[in-house]
Amino acid sequence: MTDHIQIITTTETEEDARRIALALVEGRLAACVQVLGPIASTYRWRGKIETAAEWQCVAKTRADLFARVEEAIVRLHPYEVPEILAVPIVAENAGYAQWLDEQVAM
């Protein structure tokens, strides 16, 4: 297990996803954020099953920065309850890990 994580969130628009990605990288909260989409999401919201096209952000960062990344996403995100999930990175290339550490806040 490493001290790095991927943080995943989804947004309604590509513009929102790119805005979040840019803010996280500019703020040195993530080394890289990939924007994927559109993706199809099916979920239950307020008692109804909904289907929507969304855009997914996958941010690479250190585990100790989770709270700061979460705070930034909540501040920038248009959803009432945004998805913010941290996934541990169990193994990684040493060169990539070093690069990631050099890119995020110390």
Description:
- The chain is α+β, with helices and mostly antiparallel strands and 106 residues long.
- It has one domain: Alpha-Beta Plaits (2-Layer Sandwich), CATH 3.30.70.120.
- It contains three helices and four strands.
- It has helices at 14-26, 66-76, 94-103, and strands at residues 4-11, 32-45, 48-62, 85-88.
- Strands 2-3-1-4 form a four-stranded antiparallel β-sheet.
- α1 (14-26) runs antiparallel to α2 (66-76).
- The chain is elongated, with a radius of gyration of 14 Å.
- The chain starts with a strand and ends with a helix.
Tell me, rounded to a whole number, the average pLDDT. Answer: 97
User: Could you please say which CATH topology applies here?
Assistant: Alpha-Beta Plaits
Give the CATH architecture. Answer: 2-Layer Sandwich
Give me the count of strands.
4
Shape: elongated
Supply the CATH class.
Answer: Alpha Beta
Key traits:
106 residues, alpha+beta, Alpha-Beta Plaits, 3 helices, elongated
Short description:
This protein has 106 residues and is of the alpha+beta class.
Spell out the blueprint of helices and strands:
Layout: E1 4-11, H1 14-26, E2 32-45, E3 48-62, H2 66-76, E4 85-88, H3 94-103
Antiparallel strand pairs: 1-3, 1-4, 2-3
Helix pairs in contact: 1-2
